[in-house]
# Entry
Amino acid sequence: MKALIRVAILMACAGVAVAAHAEQAAEVYKSKCALCHGASGDANTPAGKAFKVPPFNAEAVAKESDAELLEIAKTGKGKMPAWQGKLTDNQLKDLITYIHGLQKKS
Ligand code: HEC
# Structure
């Protein structure tokens, strides 16, 4: 019984941690990425158009691996700013997960 309770508590904590990560990623995305990439990832914003940002669900983006996307987010590419040093690796990984969520919705 005790073991079962311990497992239940552990699982509840893990669930909260995952939710907190997702929430943080959504906040960071809104404040730092949405300007160019759009709230829904479609890049349909004045800055997105000016910088020719591809929508996240574009074929070229969809076929990139997580490692490639993370690399672009870290070191930048063209007009895409480098986020290394401004955001942690974990924050950037959470953002890639968040971006995949946007890809699924659109
Ligand atoms: C100043 C505008 C701008 C901002 C702000 C910005 N991006 Fe980008 N981003 C771009 C552009 C432009 C590209 C396309 C680069 C290319 O392929 O030449 C891009 C590309 C990417 C890519 C690679 C996939 C793709 O669409 O080509 C990822 C991943 C990405 N951005 C993540 C982020 C994240 C995460 C943030 C916020 C922390 C962010 N971006 C903020 C302009 C921006």
User: Anything to note?
Assistant: Residues 24-105 form a domain with the Cytochrome Bc1 Complex; Chain D, domain 2 fold (CATH 1.10.760.10). Helices lie at 2-37, 46-50, 59-62, 66-75, 89-105.
